[in-house]
Amino acid sequence: MKPIRSMLFVPGSKMVWFDKIPSYHADAIILDLEDSVPNDLKEKAREDVAFSMKELHKQGQRVYVRINKGPYCFNMNDIEAVLQEELEGIVLPKVEGPEDIDLVTSIISEIEYKKGLPVGMTKLIPTLETARSIQFAYEIAEKKRVTAIAGVSPKSGDVERSLGYQWTEEGIERLYIRSQVVVAARAANVQPIGGLWQNVHDLAGLKQAAKGNRQLGFTGEMIIHPSHVPVINDVYSPTEKEVQYYKGMIQTFNEAVKEGKAAVLYEGEHIDYAHVKSAKAYLELAEQYRNKEEQMTKGE
Fold first, then answer.
1. CA distances, 144 to each of 76, 101, 107, 122 (Å)
2. Can you tell me whether residue 189 is helix, strand or coil?
3. Residues 223, 228, 233, 235: what is their CA dihedral angle, to the nearest 10 degrees?
4. Is 94 strand, coil or helix?
5. Contact, 143 vs 95, CB < 8 A?
């Protein structure tokens, strides 16, 4: 799956906001049918979300939908309504374990088949919001449709309640669970997504928290306000200084190889094939983001 830096939640009950979504420049949006939608508006939100995806997709917007989960199963009416070609994937809330992924996979496959859609096209991003889901993070991440797992830990959220820690901005109390999500995602070769920053207007705090998540190995974040998009995109994008550093590393190494060397000093540090492999991956990522920014600029 193409990398995601920013995943912006938009309430499914706020259709009046949908036209503005492409102008936010989020890598992906999550049209939400769950917590941000009042119970008496769930059915209308489902209809609006299903109707709006085609136009959003036409404008180049990657679209995910967060569905509801009842006491026994994910909401089948939600799934039935939103499955279409324009939907990239479904965000699964309150996942407990790999058995939840197996169950929803069977449901989605049946509906894809009934609708004449390619079976397997709909991707899944489970959010790990309970102690049990974090314990089984790898078993969840390795499931076939899963392309990312979200290790979100907002203040007063489901994770805090489930684990019983006391939330702080520094996040030491959440270091283990965030690291667990990153390790599981990397082991399963899927993306680790972090978030959610709850203090909407504290962009400095958001940036600091995001930098910490990126240092841990997260590739992007779920966010709740359009003003957070440029902050998150910037934090998770390679800087020009980093790009030049890795280009220089590759050039230095290639020159060393011509001289019959497989290891050399670069800016005072030892580098070999492993370092160059990482540098090439980093530059490839930078190129993807650069192309996306150019596309967004043309679309304005």
1. 20, 9, 14, 11
2. coil
3. -100
4. coil
5. no
In the numeric block, which tokens belong to residue 135? 């314990």
Give the integer Cα–Cα distance in Å for 35 and 156. 14
For residues 6 and 227, the answer to whether their CB atoms sit within 8 Å is no
Residue keyed to tokens 């508006």: 41
Contact 186, 137 (CB under 8 A): no
What average pLDDT does range 140-154 have in this prediction?
95
DSSP 137-187: HHHHHTSTTB-EEE----TTSHHHHHH-----SS-GGGHHHHHHHHHHHHH
Q: Which of 55-59, 84-88, 152-156, 198-202 has the weakest average pLDDT?
A: 152-156
Phi-psi domain of 94 (left: phi exceeds 0; alpha: psi -120 through 50; beta: other): left
Helix (H) or strand (E) holding 123: strand 123-126
What are 65's strand-pairing partners? 31, 90
- The reply to whether omega before 163 is within 30° of 0 (cis) is no
Q: Is the pLDDT of residue 294 over 90?
A: no
Q: What is the pLDDT of residue 32?
A: 96
Claim: this prediction has a pTM higher than 0.85: yes
Token reading at 121 = 């096209």
| Paired strand residues for 148 | 191
The reported pLDDT for the residue numbered 65 is 98
pLDDT at position 296 is 60
In angstroms, the CA 250 to CA 106 distance is: 46
Question: 147: which 2 tokens?
Answer: 């392309």
First to last CA, the chain: 25
Dist CA 74 CA 100 (whole Å): 9
CA distance 230 to 126: 24
**Helix, strand or coil, per DSSP, at residue 168:** coil
Which amino acid is located at 174 in the chain? R
Please count the other Cβ atoms lying within 10 Å of the Cβ belonging to residue 51. 12
